[in-house]
């Protein structure tokens, strides 16, 4: 069972035969995500085994961030509801800070492409995948 605020993801998952629950809220056209107070309230009803999140910025000191406060509030609540949290990001998001933080750097495992930034070399919560595979 998948719960999402992203209409594109909901459609793809449903087409593959998965059971999909879509949260309510205001549609943000640029990301096709549902946001707002209604979305946050709906999230509070769920407890998730795993959560997967996108981000616009990753910083050791400022955590995971996004430019939009409405999306940040939804992600922040969803992070709280998850037993395990994963941030999916390419290497270009590292050492970037967007205006609104939704989680601390230590709150999630980061799954990324090859990472050359030495500041993150000793972080135990980063999993690099090879782009060639």
Account of the 3D structure:
With 133 residues, this protein is of the alpha/beta class. Helix content is 21%, strand content 34%. The protein has helices at 7-15, 37-43, 69-80, and strands spanning 2-4, 20-22, 26-28, 33-35, 48-54, 57-59, 63-66, 82-89, 100-103, 109-112, 126-128. It has a four-stranded parallel β-sheet, covered by helices on one side. The longest helix has 12 residues, at 69-80. The protein is globular, with a radius of gyration of 15 Å. The two termini are 28 Å apart.
Question: Distance N terminus to C terminus?
Answer: 28 Å
Helix content range of the residues, please?
10-25%
Low-confidence sequence ranges? none
Tally of DSSP β-strands = 11
Please give the count of helices: 3
Spatial strand sequence of the major β-sheet: 5-8-10-11
How would you name the oligomeric state of the polypeptide chains in this document?
single chain
- Topology as H/E string? EHEEEHEEEHEEEE
Class derived from helix and strand content? alpha/beta
Overall radius of gyration: 15 Å
Largest sheet: 4 strands, parallel
Shape: globular
Q: Averaging pLDDT over every residue, what do you get?
A: 95
Strand content: 25-35%
